[in-house]
Amino acid sequence: MTTSTQGNASQKEKALPAVLVLEDGRVFHGRSYGAVGETFGEAVFSTGMTGYQETLTDPSYHRQVVVMTAPHVGNTGVNDEDPESKRIWVSGYVVRDPARVSSNWRSRRSLDEELRSQGVVGISGIDTRALTRHLRERGAMRVGIFSGNALPDAGTMLAEVRQAPEMKGANLAAEVATKETYVVPAIGTKRFTVAAVDLGIKGMTPHRMAERGIEVHVLPATATAEEIYAVNPDGVFFSNGPGDPATADGPVAVMKEVLARKTPLFGICFGNQILGRALGFGTYKLKYGHRGINQPVQDRTTGKVEVTAHNHGFAVDAPLDKVSETPYGRAEVSHVCLNDNVVEGLQLLDQPAFSVQYHPEAAAGPHDAAYLFDRFTSLMETALMEGQRA
Q1: Catalytic one among 269, 310, 335, 337?
Q2: How confident is the model at residue 238 (pLDDT cuts 50, 70, 90)?
Q3: CA-to-CA distance for 134 and 119, rounded, in angstroms?
Q4: Contact 345, 281 (CB under 8 A)
Q5: What pLDDT, on a 0 to 100 scale, did the predictor assign at position 253?
């Protein structure tokens, strides 16, 4: 969805006119940032004040134009250690006041240079607070960013935005997932093997498991139950990812087979929505979603309130006030967002399976929810001991 013009232009030369056009007709004028050209996607806002490099490289942001609510972006530049994947996935980037100089001992290049080198079209110098308020009031919507000396007329730009595909109904997981299985070895002594279905997995996720002695086999989004069990897993994991969970019939069918075998199961974000569908719940699109690293969530199993990292525009439609009967036993909502009561986690009560809608592996933080990887490990320990007794 991006067309860009590359080049190592000077700061003055690359600050070309740029226009952001929303599908409802609202227009913002600014300056080019990153690559020059045009791009389209779903306009969403992220409330994180740090971690922009992780946001840009999170595959869950595929086909989204991210608006940063923090006014100053790019201060620490870009390094080679923090990316969550091998490339930037956002389709466009919107900032108010980009850093003129990067300053960090790990910085290798500026954010502007990184965006240009990867062909990511952005815009700066606009009122991102006004844009965010507009999206909160009207909801996430399609958007286009156009930059360069020869911009189309307003009518043409709006028509192009309205021709872009919507996020609802988008089946995107296979576009961002690995094509071949790979293994992330355990750090230290190997304790367990986990089969991780990659629906758009972040690099930190298998690392968090590896820290706990887990060897992680990362499989493509199209993996079958036979391929999952070919690695003889002690547990199965379903990752985060982009798109509408209503389109993920394949992963839902595979998860049902995993649940039928009662293998310890853990899902994050898209994986939470897949579990919801497998249990018989519906999913729906949020008005503007949750994105950022400062979202309050209560773990209803402990009463603890956590500050968490989010990136989701869809949610599970499950009852908050009762235990539900499912084909795999009783299920309940285990976590809830305190801002709007959106379901943020599910767990089965009669077998070892649970999920959360947010990101416990969060980088650059917060780390309040890292215990969930220990909870997954405990489920595998219990299953192993019960198997030995049997």
Answers
A1: 269
A2: very high
A3: 27
A4: no
A5: 98
